[in-house]
Write a structure and sequence with these properties.
Helix content: 25-40%
Order of helices and strands: HHEEEHEHEHEHEHHHHEHHHHHEHEHH
CATH topology of the largest domain: Rossmann fold
Number of domains: 2
Number of helices: 18
CATH superfamily of the largest domain: Alpha/Beta hydrolase fold, catalytic domain
Structural class: alpha/beta
Distance between the termini: 53 Å
CATH architecture of the largest domain: 3-Layer(aba) Sandwich
Largest sheet: 8 strands, mixed
Low-confidence stretches: 1-35
Mean pLDDT: 91
Number of strands: 10
CATH class of the largest domain: Alpha Beta
């Protein structure tokens, strides 16, 4: 099938999905946060989008949100619960390949669209919005509210991938009584903050002159670069990706391909230091060319038609779901989390937990071809040696890049089931 006919097929598929959902899927991003274009509420996923055994539903009144949730293992009451938290640019749908295997192991599996994503509503998608609802501990509050709404006092495990990994980690740090174990995926948790200690008799410190930052050093390299999270914080980032010249479907295809084991350039290794020279050894999706947006970055490495046809972990019919959802919402909700980062009130709140560790059982899973394990030099080691005091195992899964639960679903679900089965 030629490129044009393939794109036309996918466009028709996306439109047919919209027809199944009615006007809800055609809503503009500004209207999206509240209602559909007809004044009603967004509909659940059509059953054709999901594997048998998974349902799409909504839970109201979750910290100001109407939260869209995928569920498996809901048919029987009294099961222990698992809470699955996705990353960027992902959705609850990103867990579809491992939810049923976890449910078959005896769990009630709950995977929400997080604040800023998918069919969860009640958040503001404006670049100029107040960012404080996107701060980390408010996301923990979202998770707690969802657990409580389902009638649980605690969950057997909170499992987070990519940006969902630090959210899961902070759930574990702040409320170990609710989140009794934690599985971190692709993004190591380097630990909580430290505060100055035994400094009462120190003299006042002079105000230091501003020195070039690592971001200045990146821009000054012979081949000028920029960090992707800095780019994500800029006003043009959403427009660049949402209205990519290659179209949103092909943009997401390229982004997922670039960070997967399918792209042969993903051969990660430990970086010697947090320096511009070391960071610049990472692929362009982390340390971007200074004058490129993310749409242009991934356009340089688009998979061939043969590679796309051979992809079994994200066939076009599944990728069309991401294109449909992000085509409606844009990427701004997810980008607002990067903009909030560790600044302002969000940073001040988390410093209350300075020095606190994750003491409940924990596990880390990443793809062997995932640069996410090493992108923050030292975090992988601090997670194992300091931040998590009961880390049971660490797994770098062969044949997987960043999207480990999609690229190697069977092995990922096996590792999680094994971890849960060995909990004391």
């Amino acid at each position: 099938m030629g490129d044009y006919s393939r794109r036309q097929f996918l466009r028709n598929l996306s439109l047919s999905g919209a027809a199944l959902l009615g006007p809800a899927s055609l809503v503009s991003s500004k209207v999206f946060a509240q209602t559909t274009s007809s004044g009603g509420e967004l509909a659940a996923y059509p059953s054709s989008w999901l594997p048998p055994g998974i349902r799409s539903r909504f839970v109201n009144n979750i910290n100001g949100l109407r939260m869209h949730v995928l569920e498996a293992g809901y048919q029987a009451s009294g099961r222990p619960a698992l809470l699955l938290l996705h990353g960027f640019p992902e959705l609850s749908y990103s867990w579809r390949k491992i939810m049923v295997p976890l449910a078959e192991a005896g769990y009630h599996v709950i995977a929400p669209d997080l604040r800023g994503y998918g069919r969860t509503t009640g958040w503001d998608d404006n670049y100029d919005t107040d960012l404080t609802p996107f701060r980390m501990l408010n996301r923990v509050r979202d998770a707690m509210g969802l657990v409580s709404a389902f009638g649980y006092r605690s969950v057997a495990a909170v499992i987070g991938h990519d940006y969902g990994s630090p959210v899961a980690a902070w759930c574990a740090v702040t409320r170990p009584d609710i989140f009794r174990s934690v599985v971190l995926m692709s993004a190591p948790f380097g630990g909580t903050a430290t505060l100055p200690f035994d400094t009462a008799n120190d003299p006042p410190q002079p105000v230091a002159a501003r020195r070039p930052s690592i971001y200045d050093d990146l821009a000054a390299l012979p081949r000028p670069r920029k960090h992707y999270q800095r780019y994500y914080a800029t006003r043009p980032a959403n427009e660049n990706m949402w209205h990519a010249s290659q179209g949103i479907h092909d943009f997401i295809r390229g982004y997922y391909h670039f960070k997967s084991a399918d792209w042969e350039g993903n051969r990660p290794f430990r970086l010697a230091a947090r320096s511009a020279q070391e960071w610049a050894k990472m692929p362009n999706y982390y340390i971007m060319q200074r004058d490129q947006g993310m749409a242009e970055t991934v356009a340089d490495v688009m998979p061939s038609a043969v590679e796309i046809a051979a992809n079994t972990w994200l066939p076009d019919r599944e990728l069309a779901v991401y294109a449909e959802e992000y085509g409606r919402t844009s990427f701004q909700g997810g980008l607002n989390s990067y903009r909030m980062g560790g600044t302002g009130i969000g940073a001040a709140e988390t410093q209350v937990y300075a020095g606190k560790t994750i003491d409940q059982p924990s596990m880390f899973i990443s793809g062997a071809s995932d640069w996410g394990t090493y992108q923050s030099p030292g975090a992988f080691e601090r997670m194992q040696q300091q931040a998590c005091t009961d880390m049971r195992s660490v797994h770098l899964v062969e044949g997987a890049g960043h999207w480990v639960q999609q690229e190697q679903a069977s092995e990922t679900s096996r590792l999680i089931r094994e971890f849960l089965g060995n909990l004391a």
